[in-house]
């Protein structure tokens, strides 16, 4: 039975309850381990509902989720429950690639652009230690799932309907996109051979080559092209990756939206969240209540344990 549409806005705690990271006082909201296809389906409903909101509103919710629940989300990715609620033939098939395509991985797709993700991955605190192994984990799981996904994506229409094929293309695109974000935005170029093993890179590279050609101009093709370049050790691309990494961290851009000046001087980070930097105390004070870009910084600012 299809999930009922949700009328009300979903907040960070709602996502945490659905993902099993927080207990709700309402028993029907707590899904036990094993109900993983139900969990994934509900999460997609939640995400589609919140996608109707403005981008600043979505980022406010996602920022608080990351500040409070990102470590627990990553821990779940490392310790996935076993799905037991397969009801259809398709769900039994999807269970084989559950490790690469599940609710927690889907949530990571939704929040990967949030600055708290970068803070978590760069943190040296014990609570963030799993983040150092996250690229290898996701790469290994993608390498395991890719042959089965490729079989579905490349199958004839007689064997796989367009809707099913699109499902696997979307699953592959999301998995590659998150890996691309981790690699190109957070991994130093000099570390790429140690963060993800050469063996895993060797398994993935043929799929990135194939998908970048077959889906050229489509999302899966674009992210596969970037991962192909990252794994290919092309020296001429190294500076490009360094620029992307620096831009993503925004270390040379003041956090006040109306301050467009890029500066070489060291900017000072917000002492509370440490996810944004400012060229002056005046601009930091202005951004705390400024809503020119949609929402003031105080709505995104949270202390974290990492």
From TrEMBL:
One Pfam family for this entry, by name? zf-MYND
Q: Which UniProt keywords apply?
A: Metal-binding, Zinc, Zinc-finger
Kindly indicate whether the keyword Zinc belongs to this entry: yes
Q: Which InterPro entries match?
A: Znf_MYND (IPR002893)
Q: Answer whether the UniProt record assigns the keyword Translocase to this protein.
A: no
Q: Where is the MYND-type domain?
A: 256-301
MF-aspect GO terms: zinc ion binding
SUPFAM superfamilies in alphabetical order: HIT/MYND zinc finger-like (SSF144232)
| Protein name, as recorded | MYND-type domain-containing protein
Name its species. Favolaschia claudopus
Its lineage opens with: Eukaryota, Fungi, Dikarya, Basidiomycota, Agaricomycotina
């Amino acid at each position: 039975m299809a999930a009922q549409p949700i009328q009300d806005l979903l907040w960070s705690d709602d996502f945490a309850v659905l993902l099993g990271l927080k207990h709700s006082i309402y028993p029907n909201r707590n899904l036990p381990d094993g109900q993983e296809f139900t969990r994934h389906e509900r999460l997609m409903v939640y995400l589609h509902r919140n996608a109707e909101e403005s981008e600043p509103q979505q980022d406010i919710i996602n920022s608080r989720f990351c500040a409070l629940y990102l470590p627990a989300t990553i821990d779940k990715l490392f310790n996935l429950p076993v799905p037991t609620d397969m009801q259809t033939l398709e769900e039994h098939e999807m269970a084989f690639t559950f490790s690469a395509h599940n609710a927690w991985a889907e949530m990571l797709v939704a929040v990967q652009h949030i600055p708290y993700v970068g803070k978590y991955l760069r943190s040296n605190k014990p609570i963030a230690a799993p983040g150092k192994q996250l690229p290898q984990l996701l790469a290994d799981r993608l390498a395991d799932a890719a042959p089965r996904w490729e079989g579905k994506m490349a199958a004839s229409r007689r064997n796989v309907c367009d809707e099913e094929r699109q499902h696997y293309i979307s699953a592959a695109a999301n998995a590659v996109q998150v890996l691309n974000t981790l690699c190109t935005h957070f991994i130093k170029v000099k570390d790429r051979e140690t963060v993800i093993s050469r063996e895993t890179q060797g398994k993935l590279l043929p799929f990135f080559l194939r998908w970048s050609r077959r889906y050229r101009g489509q999302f899966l093709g674009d992210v596969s092209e970037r991962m192909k370049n990252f794994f290919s050790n092309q020296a001429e691309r190294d500076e490009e990756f360094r620029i992307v990494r620096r831009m993503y961290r925004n270390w040379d851009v003041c956090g006040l939206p109306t301050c467009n000046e890029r500066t070489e001087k060291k900017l000072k980070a917000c002492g509370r969240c440490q996810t944004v930097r400012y060229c002056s105390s005046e601009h930091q004070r202005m951004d705390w209540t400024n809503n020119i870009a949609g929402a003031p910084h105080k709505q995104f600012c949270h202390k974290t344990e990492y």
